[in-house]
């Protein structure tokens, strides 16, 4: 059985939308669409780039914020679809320091000048939209 162009349209629509979200810097849509609409095969192809996109998003938040208030890791972890503990490790591997407020919430201070990509690449970090696939395999 051969695939026709109509069979491929949903697949290409997802990929075009992900590419558009990435190019526009809409990282929330990128991750939410990946979790909601990407097939397992598409995710496997994109997996090496997920952490690169996370690094770009964190860089934008770090350098682009106009307020000097720290950004809560809990909120950031929901946007980037990563466990909060993994996000803290991810930030540290990018050269960013995290802190804890008086009520115990972990925060990412903005305007840090030490941001860089790890020379050895990123280790594996969780992706919150992947549990559905992981339970099948």
Please provide a brief summary of the model.
This protein is mainly alpha-helical.
Describe this structure in words.
This is SAC3/GANP/THP3 conserved domain-containing protein. It comes from Stylosanthes scabra. Pfam families: SAC3_GANP. A hairpin with a 5-residue loop joins strand 2 and strand 3 (about 105-110). The chain is mainly α. It has helices at about 5-25, 25-35, 40-65, 75-80, 85-95, 130-135, and strands at about 70, 100, 105-110. A three-stranded antiparallel beta sheet has the order 1-3-2. The chain has one domain (about 10-135). Residues about 5 have low confidence and may be disordered.
Largest sheet: 3 strands, antiparallel
Number of structurally distinct domains: 1
Indicate the low-confidence ranges by residue numbers.
3-7
What sort of overall outline do the alpha carbons produce when their principal axes are compared? globular
Strand order in the largest sheet: 1-3-2
Strand content: 5-15%
Tell me the radius of gyration.
17 Å
Derived structural class: mainly alpha
């Amino acid at each position: 059985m051969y695939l026709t162009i109509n069979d491929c349209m949903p697949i290409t629509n997802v990929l075009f939308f992900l590419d558009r979200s990435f190019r526009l810097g809409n990282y929330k849509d990128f991750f939410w669409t990946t979790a909601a609409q990407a097939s397992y095969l598409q995710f496997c192809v994109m997996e090496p780039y997920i952490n690169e996109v996370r690094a770009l998003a964190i860089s934008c938040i770090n350098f682009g914020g106009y307020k000097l208030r720290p950004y809560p890791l809990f909120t950031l972890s929901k946007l980037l679809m990563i466990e909060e503990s993994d996000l803290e490790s991810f930030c540290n591997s990018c050269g960013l320091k995290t802190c804890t407020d008086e009520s115990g919430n972990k925060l990412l201070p903005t305007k840090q000048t030490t941001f860089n990509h790890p020379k050895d690449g990123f280790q594996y970090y969780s992706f919150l939209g992947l549990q559905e696939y992981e339970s099948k395999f």
